[in-house]
Write a structure and sequence with these properties.
This protein is mainly alpha-helical. The protein has two domains: 67 residues, no CATH class; 54 residues. 42% of the residues lie in helices and 4% in strands. The chain contains four helices and two strands; from the N terminus they run ααββαα. Strands 1-2 form a two-stranded antiparallel ribbon. The protein is elongated.
Length: 139
């Protein structure tokens, strides 16, 4: 109940990790292209076309949907590095905001804990008095 706040964990180690985790398969090909300075589109995986989501069927999903030009890359199959870097920076800023909230919660937790006795902390954590408590009645 009176637990220390959970420390936020970083989702991605660096820009490369952020970029590569957007893809489910063919990471070797994506790495080769990335080393050449080509950044493959997240949405179409470089295929330039995606299934038309407006044709989604209740039972079959996108199985019979037509392919349309990818709107993210405009049919080029590539994204500019600046756009991907911007997305990465947003992710980093979000993490920094979570860390700041964590630090505030931790400071509040520590200040509250300093004001409580060990017996009070035990009661908050377990909802009962300590078994060897001096205040327990031994009638």
């Amino acid at each position: 109940m009176f637990d220390r706040p959970d420390k936020p964990t970083r989702s991605y180690k660096n820009f490369r990790h952020f970029y590569l985790n957007r893809f489910f398969s063919n990471k070797d090909i994506i790495i080769e292209k990335m080393e050449k300075g080509i950044y493959v589109c997240f949405c179409c995986n470089g295929h330039k076309k995606v299934k038309d989501h407006t044709q989604r069927d209740v039972y079959e999903g996108l199985k019979y949907a037509d392919y349309i030009t990818c709107e993210s890359c405009n049919g080029t199959g590539e994204l500019p590095k600046s756009l991907i870097m911007e997305l990465y920076k947003e992710e980093v800023e979000d993490f920094k905001a979570k860390v700041e909230i964590y630090r505030k919660k931790l400071a509040l937790y520590k200040s509250i804990k300093k004001k409580l006795t060990d017996e009070e902390i035990y009661y908050i954590d377990y909802g009962r008095l300590q078994p060897d408590s001096k205040t327990s009645n031994s009638n």
